[in-house]
Amino acid sequence: MSEKIKMILDCDVGHDDAIALMLAAAHPQIDLLGICAVAGNQVVEKTLRNTLNVVQHLGLDIPVYGGMDRPMVRDQILAPDIHGESGLDGPVFGPLHTEAQKEHGVNYIIRALMEAEEKITLVPVGPLTNIGMALRLEPRIVDKIQRIVLMGGAFGLGNRSPAAEFNILADPESAHVVFSSGAPIVMMGLDLTNQALADMSVIERMEAIGNKAGKLFGDMMRFTFESQKRNGLSAGPVHDVTAVAYLVRPDLFQTRPANVEVCLDKGLCYGRTVCDMTGRTGKPQNALVGTGLDLEGFWDLVEENIRRLA
Length: 310
Ligand code: RIB
Ligand code: CA
Fold this sequence. Notes:
This protein is an alpha/beta fold and 310 residues long. It contains twelve helices and eleven strands.
């Protein structure tokens, strides 16, 4: 039994996805087996390119796979208002020569899980399309999943609609497949992730590290700092990073067990994660939901691991 946490990151890079990738790649307790790109913040061609750019820029030797290019059922929605036309506006990368693996991301997730001797932790921080499709294509993978620690949903208000958070609303049906799969789930929803704000002092702190990763952090977060201001926010929440941080430092988090179900009614609450934290529904508690974050400890964790990178 290896000491390291074997993990697959599923993401829609995306500024906060990129920092989650950096933390997962740097932390000594994590064995980042592979990274799958999914359509979300931008079309999958862009999120895949962004992922490859980050991996290449930081000299990371981690296989990258292209995943689903559209949601399981609904029409596609994107988030250029937050992440820009490229999906990772802000940083400038050199010519891209790193290629994605030929295998489709969904097939990779299934193969990696079915071949694994030890269970693998899945960390999806974009729409849950790749994970949902993998569970539908090969239901037996659920027994090989250590945990699904995801960024998505909210027990309070949404951010893409009043009721729904973007990752869930972008593919509610896949989210339903995941939450009803029986796999152990930790949900880092907006009530938790909006606490992880990268204000200018944090940006300057990471840039002062003086390496490529610290500068990349600054170039990315200065962009979202401006885009969030246009949305009336004072800084950019690094939503996705909390999912990876939870893996290695659960002590920085407060969580509550809950029954979480995804609303699939095509009305105002489409894509809402309905969180029963009091047992009122009598339904089984299928997830731990993040409620509180030690922000000082969180940024210390991020800084110490950015220092480990190029
Ligand atoms: O709602 C926040 C989520 O949407 C994050 O994963 C962010 O990257 C965007 O995809
Ligand atoms: Ca994301």
